[in-house]
Amino acid sequence: MLIAPQNLALRVKELRLRMRAAAEAAGRDPGSVTLVAVSKSHNAEAIREAATAGVTDFGESYLNEALPKMQRLADLPLCWHFIGAIQSNKTRAIAERFAWAHGIDRPGIARRLSEQRPFHAPPLDVCIQVALVPEPGKGGVTAGGLPELAAQVAGMPRLRLRGLMCIPPPQPGTAAQRAMFARLRGLLSELNAAGHSLDTLSMGMSADFEAAIAEGATLVRVGTALFGERR
Hints:
With about 230 residues, this protein is α/β, with parallel strands linked by helices. It has helices at about 5-25, 45-50, 65-70, 90-95, 105-115, 145-155, 175-195, 210-215, 225, and strands at about 35-40, 55-60, 80, 100-105, 125-130, 160-165, 200, 220. Helix content is about 40%, strand content about 15%. Helix 4 packs across helix 5.
C-alpha cells in the first residue's frame, strides 16, 4: 500500500504524540525515546517522505532489499539500523553500511562484525537480542547465557555494546506486555551492576511500544503504525 505524503506526515505526528504521552505518563523525558521506523518492505520514496516529516532512524531486516534503498537515499543524513537476524555471509555489508545492529545473539557473529567494521568508521553500535521465553525458530540468547555473551561482545574492539533487544511473543494485555519488557530492563540493570555501562533498551513495536516506553525503552521499532500494512 502506497501512502500519500500528507498521510505519512500525519502518521508521524500522531505516533510521536503517542510516544510523548507514554513517556510523560511514565515520568520520563520524551526525548529519551528514539523512533526507529521499520522500513523493510517499503520503498525508498516512503522512507524519503518519512525523513521529510522528521524521522532520522530507519530499521531494515533484509540486506538485499536494504542496500539499494540506502544507495538511493545516500543524500539524506539517516541513521540505519539492522534489526533482523544476522547471517554470517551478510556481516561484512552490515559492518560496512549500518550504524547499529540489534540482533547479536552469538559470539561468532559479533566477532565477524568487529573484524569487518571499517577502521575509518566509529565502532558499530550493537544490542544483544535476548529470548525472554523459549520460541523455536526465533533468535536470542537465554537470560542464563547473557552475562558471558555480554562480556565477550564488550571486549570486541570495533563494536560498542549499547544494550539489549527483544522481540517477545504477542501478549494478551498491557500488564502482560509490561511484564515482558520489565524482564529485559531487569537484565540490563544486572549487567550494569556487574560493571557494564549500557544505556539502550531496543523494545516495543507497533502493538506494544507504549508498554515498552513505560518500562524504559530507549529505541522503539515501529513499522505498521507508521507506514501501514503493505499489500
